[in-house]
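Q: What structure does this chain adopt?
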Amino acid sequence: MKPSYRLFDVTVASIRPLSPHFTRVTFTGPDLHEWGWFGADQRIKVVLPGDIWRTYTIRAARPAMREVDVDFVSHGLTGPATRWLAAAVVGDALGLIGPDATSGAEPDGYVWRPGDARTLLLAADETAVPAVAVILEGLPADATGHVFLEVPSSGDTLPLHAPAGVQINWLPREELAYGEALVPAVTAWVDAWAAEWAPVEPLEGAEEAPGTENAEGAEYEILWEVPEQAASADLYAWLAGEAGAITGLRRHLVRERGVDRKQVAFMGYWKLGRSEN
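A:
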């Protein structure tokens, strides 16, 4: 059996600015008709020149047309991906490591598994906006929930399509630090929700996951934990973005508001002050 992921050789088909900080790149390649897509927030690797790998989520895929869209976020020339994007032109060659629809292997690389939760909470910074956009587009018409998206500026509020019962809250950061717009807004919503629906005491099994030790033996916080499948519940929370802000929100949900950790998926996509591994 072939692996569920493999390398696809691609070239840049188009580059389209979406806002001051978001740019959509469409890739094309001879084998992209075999590109798969197993979950809404499907992770892939973009292989930049110099064999530098960066993780992104699929924004859209059209296998019949041999096209895949990836939305990039730019913050000046601070990293290899933004430097590549600043100089990229149509025809540039690189690689995508993505799902192979022909593999027959167990699908992997996605997190969104809300089960039959009655209320959805999505909280993210700009690095997870493309994933949120795809999640929203795939929700059933009767879905209900709240979405909080922290972005660099007011010009980065993109048009998103969501069911009528899902409220989208854009939080332009402007001069604030990362998380300073997102954390208080989400915390306030969680507190209001908990006052109406959540128990006063933490639920059974709501304790924090244990820490993990690094090579030096020092304990660090877990930055990524997702339930296999959310149980029937009032709430399913999907949190993604800068690790410090996201772990803080997860801690507030689980420790302070008694939400079962099996109802919370949180992903530290990146950590302030550290480069991606």
